[in-house]
Amino acid sequence: MGYNAAMARLGSWIEPNPDGIYVAPADAWIDPASPKARALITHGHGDHARGGHGQVWATAETLAIMDCRYGEQNKRPVAYGDSVRLGEVEVGFVPAGHVLGSSQIILDHAGERVVVSGDYKRRPDPTCAPFVVTPCDIFITEATFGLPVFKHPDTGGEIDRLLHRLHAEPDRCVLVGAYALGKAQRVITELRGRGHDDPIYIHGALERLCRLYEELGVPLGELRLATGVPKDELRGRIVLCPPGALNDRWSRRLPDPVTAMASGWMRIRQRARQRNVELPLVISDHADWDELTRTIREVAPTEVWITHGREEALMHWCMTRQIKARELNLVGYEDEDD
Ligand SMILES: [Zn+2]
Ligand SMILES: [Zn+2]
Question: Three-state SS string across 251-297, please?
Fold first, then answer.
């Protein structure tokens, strides 16, 4: 390979490692899986944000979430739309529409622009700022739902199914499994948006993050802790818990719960059955196939690098459109709709 060919390779200053993406001229890691001196964090989910880093560069909301989960961080907040100079790289944060505080990270260096999507979605989410399309040379994207079969339905319709079930069986409660960060607050906010003003009961594991969302300006209406509440008070009510509590001892004290779960994976019957979910709600915080491909069209990159998820179909889609695609196979990102 000649000198010119080497120079022509886009993004040679971005080093994908099993541990995360290393940005050499900034001496910084994006969403690293182990402690680093300088970390740039896309969002607060546990597979992206971990404790123990030196400096943590992220939005103020993501930093607050990390403080809440891991204790006090060495915080370097960057607001959406602002950028900072780290070494020889201009680093910016723009909304990813995934959960509160979630960002894409923009890296400008040597006349090239690289955008790291983190996890993202394109549908409206009342709990966070919408995804911002940022044209770039290399788009480093997730592909959790990177198969054409994944088409998430309209969220309002899923919430209506939940409310319909609740009202149809007023002697039972509906127990909804939802991840503690993002999904739980989104389900609550979507319910409020559909006119459900009753108190919503929550498992203790959801309390801190719900309170933090409220402190950060996302109103959730009246929430009550479900623990210790008499059975009769919970009839006709919605109760939220982390997915792990759906089938454990905790839920046995509830009045004949209709077991529901809010996740993009609920599209797959077998996944619903595994968790004994009677009412699967297809509500996802990740882009579905149409959102992934629409986003790549809009971002119009020269190259697409895929961090995690189902890569093959998206690689093929890119290649048939003359977009160079590459899979990074980063480990440690969970195969979850978190
Ligand atoms: Zn996430
Ligand atoms: Zn993730």
Answer: HHHCCCCEEEEECHHHHCHHHHHHCCCCEEECCCCCCCHHHHHHHHH
